[in-house]
Design a protein that fits this description.
This protein is of the alpha+beta class. It contains 12 helices and 5 strands. The protein folds into 2 domains: about 180 residues; about 140 residues, Alpha-Beta Plaits (2-Layer Sandwich), CATH 3.30.70. A hairpin with a 2-residue loop joins β2 and β3. The protein is elongated, with a radius of gyration of 30 Å.
Length: about 350
């Protein structure tokens, strides 16, 4: 199977990976080397900051799925260092001719971190805004303290403030766009009426087999005589029945089971990691639950179910055709029953 294309939902994590595995170690080494070269010694504050950056880079390498607490701890560490840099620049002992170099580093790194932090905290937009505005303020203060006022007339710190604010608004717009695209991708794979996955979502699941889908059982379910419901009570009643069947499927099988509305009154259930006996027992519970349920204005329906096991020799797509054939057999045998396809 070819690699899955990069989607909007992957953007923050991909950028975070480059940031923590390349940029953060590079900044840690550069800060340690430059400040040490300019002062002639390793300042404890610089060593602490560089060591902290290296630690977070290592943590991200070992555990890429960062918790919110670790992300926040990293951001606070950077903020504290930039704030200290702005409040006490003389403590580093950097000679005046090199102050401009520190300002240029701030001009480069602050806007870059503003952009990255928006993506790093894309799931917490309010926190991202608070952090990047605090970073912008701290960086501007630090640049003001370090630059030569008589020479530059504060132009560098003003430029830093302007660039950081522009980056802040640009990154915020990117995150909003990314979130909307992610929601559109989710809706494109969701049946609008029942909230279950649609045919596209099932097709993508089949494409991911066997890498991400362990062996199990696939079932195709069909509502018996559904046309009668539409003809007798109307299409709104039919929609309520479809929604009710989807609700029963979730309640009986749980929210973690892949559920799909294939189309019309037909549903598909994937039960990874289940044996044929376990799957039959679960789906018999679904069938009995539907048969005993009253929908809307007194409508009652039944389900016919076809099942087929899948594994390394028989994939999901083949299992679907076999389960569909077993469903037709259940229909021909009188409906309201479950039929297991013969083993391959």
């Amino acid at each position: 199977m070819s690699p899955r294309p990069l989607g909007p939902a992957d953007l923050p994590e991909r950028i975070a990976r480059v940031y923590f595995r390349l940029l953060v170690p590079l900044v840690a080494a550069a800060v340690l080397w430059i400040i040490s070269a300019l002062t002639g010694s390793v300042h404890p504050l610089v060593a602490l900051f560089s060591g902290t950056l290296a630690m977070f880079a290592l943590l991200h390498l070992l555990r890429p799925g960062w918790s919110e607490g670790l992300r926040l701890a990293f951001a606070v560490s950077v903020l504290v260092f930039v704030a200290v840099l702005g409040l006490e620049p003389q403590r580093l002992g950097v000679r005046a001719p090199y102050h401009e170099l520190i300002v240029h580093l701030l001009l480069l790194l602050i806007p870059l971190n503003v952009l990255i932090w928006h993506l790093l905290f894309s799931d917490r937009p309010r926190r991202a805004r608070a952090l990047v505005l605090a970073l912008t303020a701290a960086g501007t203060l630090a640049a003001t303290r370090w630059e030569d006022v008589a020479t530059t007339h504060l132009t560098t710190s003003a430029l830093l403030l302007a660039v950081s604010l522009v980056t802040h608004f640009f990154a915020g717009a990117v995150v909003i766009l990314q979130r909307r695209m992610r929601e559109e991708e989710r809706l494109a794979r969701q049946d609008a009426l029942t909230g279950l996955g649609n045919r596209l979502a099932f097709t993508e699941l089949c494409a991911q087999w066997p890498q991400t889908v362990p062996s199990g059982v696939l079932a195709v379910l069909d509502i018996d005589h559904f046309k009668v419901v539409n003809d007798r009570w109307g299409h709104e009643a039919g929609d309520r029945v479809l929604q009710g069947v989807a609700t029963v499927l979730r309640e009986v099988l749980g929210g973690s089971v892949p559920l799909f509305r294939w189309g019309g009154e037909e549903f598909v259930v994937c039960l990874p990691g289940r044996s044929a006996h376990e799957a039959a027992r679960l789906l018999e519970g679904v069938r009995a639950g539907i048969a005993g349920h009253t929908f809307g204005e007194g409508q009652q329906v039944t389900l016919s179910v076809g099942l087929c096991a899948y594994g390394l020799q028989q994939g999901l797509a083949h299992a679907f055709s076999q389960a569909d054939a077993a469903l037709r057999q259940a229909k021909d045998s009188g409906r309201d029953r479950l039929v297991m396809a013969p083993a391959a």
